[in-house]
Amino acid sequence: MVYIKQIELSHFKSFGGTTSLPLLPEFTVVTGPNGSGKSNILDALLFALGLSSSKGMRADRLPDLVNSTYASRSRSTVETLVTVTFALDDWQPEAEETEEGEGTGLQPGMAEWTVSRKLRVTPSGTYTSTYAMNGEACTLQQLHEQLSRLRIYPEGYNVVLQGDVTNIISMSPRDRRQIIDELAGVAQFDRKIEQAKGK
Ligand code: ATP
Ligand code: MG
């Protein structure tokens, strides 16, 4: 079974220093008082998986994800880093997959695989976002390609946020079907059919 084994956050939202959160196979519950940072852990996960919209991580702008105490104390460039470690255990590529994983991508037999994202914010407020797989720099597209092999989609429903359930209940049957198709992995074939028809 593939599962998230650890999330390590540095200067991310309410996490001032570096915090390592071990997660268990199957089921982990995070409890704590209101405002103590539980949802920020999920935001950190989405951040590392390459979610582009800061709103999806409940921040107006990406630089707002950097711990504010740390950012206000620094006069130079600040950065936040989140690393997610997946335990791959007996993961195997899908039978129909033809692409070989790249060097830092998923390979059968790998026990662990890490993805990380770093956001650097300069004193003038400009920022850059960089990604790495197994510690080696990669593009966002390369990261998404590898994540999709695990059926992980930052914009998908691997993470169900507050309000999502209400949205799903109140959406039209057609829109709800679209979500099920995405989760079942059927939608990617529909997209390929549409692409082929367009050619
Ligand atoms: P609830 O039980 O109400 O859902 P929670 O444990 O999920 O609470 P979060 O939403 O994860 O809480 O955390 C909210 C806290 O994170 C707020 O106190 C907010 O000030 C703090 N926070 C958010 N962004 C930053 C930041 N950039 N720097 C410092 N603190 C931040
Ligand atoms: Mg919360």
From TrEMBL:
Residues annotated for ATP binding in this entry: P33, N34, G35, S36, G37, K38, S39, N40
Where in the cell is the protein located?
Cytoplasm
Share what the entry says about its subunit structure, partners included: Homodimer.
Family to which this protein belongs: Belongs to the SMC family.
The record's comment about this protein's domains reads: Contains large globular domains required for ATP hydrolysis at each terminus and a third globular domain forming a flexible hinge near the middle of the molecule. These domains are separated by coiled-coil structures.
> What is the purpose of this protein?
Required for chromosome condensation and partitioning.
Name this protein carries in UniProt: Chromosome partition protein Smc
Covered part of the full sequence, start to end and full length, is 1 to 199 of 1195
